[in-house]
Amino acid sequence: MEAVQGAGVVVTGAGGGIGAALARRFAAEGARVVVNDLDADKARAVAEETGGIALPGDASAIVPEARDALGGTVDIWCANAGVGTGGSEAADEDEWERAWDVNVMAHVRAARALLPDWLDRGSGRFVATVSAAGLLTMIGAAPYSVTKHGAYAFAEWLSLTYRHRGIKVHAICPQGVRTDMLDASGSAGDLVLKPTAIEPEDVADALFKGIAEDRFLILPHPEVAGFYQARAADPERWLTTMNRLQRTWEDIR
């Protein structure tokens, strides 16, 4: 793919799951890949596998190091690191803060560091791994749902603000993906996500199709488009349906 071959790519949260699948796919398409993860051993393992460069650490703070590692230019930034914080409004303050910091502010900080160079040269690509929860919601996971809405809103804002200046933005919004995060989602994930869960490689395939089509919204589960349309067209009916799902979950947990 011309948009990817030879590009300098950073994938955060790439020690496993969707991030590792993205790193592998970008490398297979001829990109130069920086593999970031808080787990240094996992980052190094994926980097070794893909011929990439391991850069462990906080995804919010690695833009300068990543730029140096790629010879001075980051062409594509995949803001993939995320936390799947469950709970309700009663979740601890530190859980809410961590969800905001990782799921939203890490994207903001990366964009803040990347955009001056991208705007100067008139090109750059920002890929946000959001979630279908950012378009819809997820029962039993208030911090996750709320912050994924924020991640989607920020990606949308970036796209509408800078697309005429050469900045490409993609928001990936899958439902269940067979990763450690899905395994940790408990009975709510078992009910809502696992029946239609896909592999991380399917998410990478969907992203690359979206890049080829120059499309902002990437839906690895195509049925999410219909759910999103139903939510917008008749919010009361949609909320009633979701509340029915909530009650089913309450009965089985």
TrEMBL record:
CDD domains linked: SDR_c (cd05233)
Xref: InterPro entries: NAD(P)-bd_dom_sf, Sc_DH/Rdtase_CS, SDR_fam
SUPFAM superfamilies: NAD(P)-binding Rossmann-fold domains
Pfam families xrefs: adh_short
This protein's UniProt keywords: Oxidoreductase
The family this protein is said to belong to: Belongs to the short-chain dehydrogenases/reductases (SDR) family.
Name by which UniProt lists this protein: SDR family oxidoreductase
Protein source organism: Streptomyces thermoviolaceus subsp. thermoviolaceus
Lineage: Bacteria, Bacillati, Actinomycetota, Actinomycetes, Kitasatosporales
